[in-house]
Amino acid sequence: MREEIVDRLQSANLRFIRLYPGDSGRRQPVHTVYGGAHLFKADTASRLGALALRALEEYAPKPSDLAWVPEALAPKVHARVVEKLRREPVEDFRADFEDGYGNRPDDEEDGHAETAAREMAAGMAAGTLPPFIGIRIKPFTEELRERSFRTLELFLTALGPLPDNFVVTLPKVTNPEQVAALADLFDLLEPALGLPGGSLHLEIMVETPQSILDSQGRCPLPLLVYAARGRCVAAHFGTYDYTASCNITAAHQRMDHPACDFAKHMMQVAFAGTGIQISDGATNVLPVAPHRGEELTAEQIEENRAVVHDAWWLHSQHIRHSLINAFYQGWDLHPAQLVTRYATVFAFFLEGLDAASERLRNFVQKAAQATLVGDVFDDAATGQGLLNYFLRAVNCGALSEEEALERSGLTLEELRGRSFVKILANRRG
């Protein structure tokens, strides 16, 4: 009888571990930049970085111009934004064959699928691609699935070997069969194109109410991931399709709408512990100056500045809302939004640095016993969260590895190992 109890318990525990293996340990980009596939070039990332630097120099040349950053942090944040835009301006890019591309004649999309792939291959050879990259195909609806299939096949055939961290984004997912179909296509394309088995990965876009609650009152999000058979690595929220589907008027379709928060909390719950990375959507009010030309009046120059700064402020508030709610990735649609993205993310991590440093140092030194730092009580569940704070800060450029080691009290091996459990086990040993 005891053996039967143990067997049932062990079986249940092992099944849970398979379904919820925990954080994958992969670096997560802070954003995904979307751009029409017809415009994609091998050096797109560096060109976007140059445009972002120009916007920073024109509209925020001084640290104090970053009005959404705490005054004490502004000089450090400003300098690190400049360094980031020069070194790695784009962390993740998606050559878009969907909303950013539109519906075009078949022969035109055929041509763009092949030219975009050749540009991506050229960028891979030249080392100019961002660390994460991919394409977004059209949705697998009855009207568009054949077009989507063809674009995917043409692109991958022309691309050849895959860049690092390459992913295919499937938009407007409404049922698990659509995800399964993409996984099935991967199964066919890998051997046909000489790609290693399992090398193609996908991410789903949560853009419809039916992906949150199906016709039987169930949350289908886990089923969407299971349908990918291990190929799904991320789920991205689509703000504007989702809010439109909920009949929210255009004036109120925004990232921090309560309807969006509900859907994103559902995503968090569904994907917690699975290793699936989640991303928020985009701010569609862009920092674009209304007046162009070299002979602008003082009034026009000031209006340009006000429009750009208002858009930056809104973008920064949306990013901060996402970060507070543990969505550490979002979409960017315009090069000037890179300024806000990095400045807001850097400020977010630097604001909490002192408290996180003290808590992690104290917790590690006491070998994960429950501790009290000031008026904050930490138990074992907090350790990995504190470690993840430093990992994310280093990955995005808010902190250097040297600063993270100095402030956290960890060794380089411990930081790069990404596991708080292993840190404690080794120190106890």
Q: What is the first-to-last residue Cα distance?
A: 37 Å
CATH class of the largest domain: Alpha Beta
- What share of residues are in beta strands? 5-15%
Q: Determine the mean pLDDT.
A: 93
CATH architectural grouping of the largest domain: Alpha-Beta Barrel
Q: Whole-number radius of gyration?
A: 23 Å
Main attributes of the structure:
two-stranded antiparallel ribbon; TIM Barrel; alpha/beta; 10 strands
What does this structure look like?
It contains 16 helices and 10 strands. By secondary structure, the protein is of the alpha/beta class. It folds into 2 domains: 31-350, Phosphoenolpyruvate-binding domains (TIM Barrel, Alpha-Beta Barrel); 352-428, no CATH class. The strands form 2 sheets. It has an 8-stranded parallel beta sheet, with helices on one face. It has a two-stranded antiparallel sheet with strand order 9-10. Strand 4 (166-170), helix 6 (176-193) and strand 5 (202-206) form a beta-alpha-beta unit. Helix 4 runs parallel beside helix 5 (145-159) and helix 10 (298-324) crosses helix 11. The model has no long low-confidence stretch (mean pLDDT 93).
